[in-house]
Design a protein that fits this description.
single chain; about 375 residues; alpha/beta; Quinone Oxidoreductase, Chain A, domain 1; Rossmann fold; 2 domains; 6-stranded parallel β-sheet; about 25% helix; metal-binding; alcohol dehydrogenase (NAD+) activity; EC 1.1.1.1
């Protein structure tokens, strides 16, 4: 563990004291890609919750002490995308895994011994982080931040994909490929929408019990069958499901999910992130016969406009979050948490920052460099 310097927020930026951060496989995916891009050293982490410590010039939406969620995709509220009801993208402040500096001046707010450290979609593996105000969502102070951190990525992506983006109808059939946090979020959203038959597909049967508590009716392990899993699904659903969701991040699984859909109206939604250069190869006839292949970022949820609604649903016990947390660890054990994730032993592990003399444990990623962070005062 080392100390790093976190500079004051500049114009339009917010500095956040991170209290809880959970792990997402996307951090591993783009850690590996960053090795190829040369964006190192870099602070990873993007699913978190915390409290506003200070704000930069021109920031009026936030003030010191606000409870917030940093999010990886922003919302300016003014561009054509933000004003559209058809998309949750933002023209300027969208998720960008290749961006390693701040937008306003192309500089980083992190450094160690005078050397800059690159940014990554929030950089929440640090006690303090600095992000543009468009990537910050204010939340109800009465809501528990240790649970809300899950809404800043995985759960919202899954829940929104089925409930908000695909708009699964009552009585419909759904197949979910991958029963991690995103896949289980899809299941919870489909259940809220009234889906009649929710099938969960995963090669790890340890996930099946948890999946059933969140709405999955039937669990399948492709390794248990002597024929392709899409053929099994077609046989069980009278020609295929109405909706299928790819939640693994695999081009091959996208093809399988598409083949599992019913011709004429079946819709496949891509939710996972493929980090390599693999492509989906499908015959045009699959689409000529009425199937649809689409994808969504953050479940189609506009972060500032719609995340507070999900927080309210959780507070009203209409939405589950506690079920997704399988491990709770202090931050120095983040490598252990990543091992749980990579071995399929956890859904979400969140790390609690143990505050001591204003310096707490923080971490880059996957055992490369471990660091602590300190924040300079606004006048330093």
């Amino acid at each position: 563990m080392e100390d790093i310097q976190v500079d004051p927020p500049q114009k339009g930026e917010v500095r956040i004291r991170i209290l809880f951060t959970s792990l997402c496989h996307t951090d591993v995916t783009f850690w590996q890609d960053s090795l190829k891009l040369g964006l190192f050293p870099r602070i990873f982490g993007h699913e978190a919750s915390g409290i506003v410590e200070s704000v930069g010039e021109g920031v009026t939406e936030f003030q010191e002490g606000d409870h917030v969620l940093p999010v990886f995709t922003g919302e300016c509220g003014d561009c054509r995308y933000c004003k559209s009801t058809k998309s949750n993208l933002c023209k300027k402040f969208r998720g960008d895994v290749k961006r390693g500096v701040m937008i306003c001046d192309n500089k980083s707010r992190f450094s160690v011994r005078g050397k800059s450290i690159y940014f990554f979609m929030g950089s929440t593996f640090s006690e303090y982080t600095v992000v543009e105000q468009e990537y910050v969502v204010k939340v109800n102070r009465a809501a528990p931040l240790d649970k809300l951190c899950l809404l800043s990525c995985g759960v919202t992506t899954g829940l929104g994909s089925s409930w908000n983006f695909a708009k699964v109808e009552k009585g419909s059939s759904v197949a979910i490929f991958g029963l991690g946090t995103i896949g289980l979020g899809v299941a919870e959203g489909a259940k809220l929408s009234g889906a009649a038959h929710i099938i969960g597909i995963d090669t790890n049967p340890l996930k099946f019990d948890k999946a059933r508590t969140l709405g999955v009716r039937e669990c399948m392990n492709p390794n248990d069958f002597d024929r392709p899993i899409h053929e099994v699904i077609i046989g069980k659903t009278d020609g295929g499901v109405d909706y299928s969701f790819e939640c693994v991040g695999s081009a091959n699984v996208v093809q399988t999910a598409l083949l599992s859909c019913h011709e004429g109206w079946g819709k496949t939604v891509v939710c996972g992130v493929e980090g390599g250069n693999k492509t989906v190869n499908s015959h045009p006839q699959l689409f000529l016969y009425g199937r649809t292949l689409t994808g969504t970022l953050f479940g189609g949820v506009k972060p500032k406009s719609e995340l507070p609604t999900l927080v309210a649903m959780y507070m009203n016990k209409e939405l589950q979050l506690d079920q997704y947390i399988t491990h709770t660890l202090p931050f120095p054990q983040i490598n252990e948490a990543f091992e749980f994730l990579l071995q399929g032993k956890s859904l979400r592990s969140w790390e609690c920052y143990n505050i001591a003399n204003s310096v707490v444990n923080a971490h880059f990623v996957h055992g490369l460099w471990k660091r602590q962070s300190i924040a300079l005062g606004s006048n330093d």
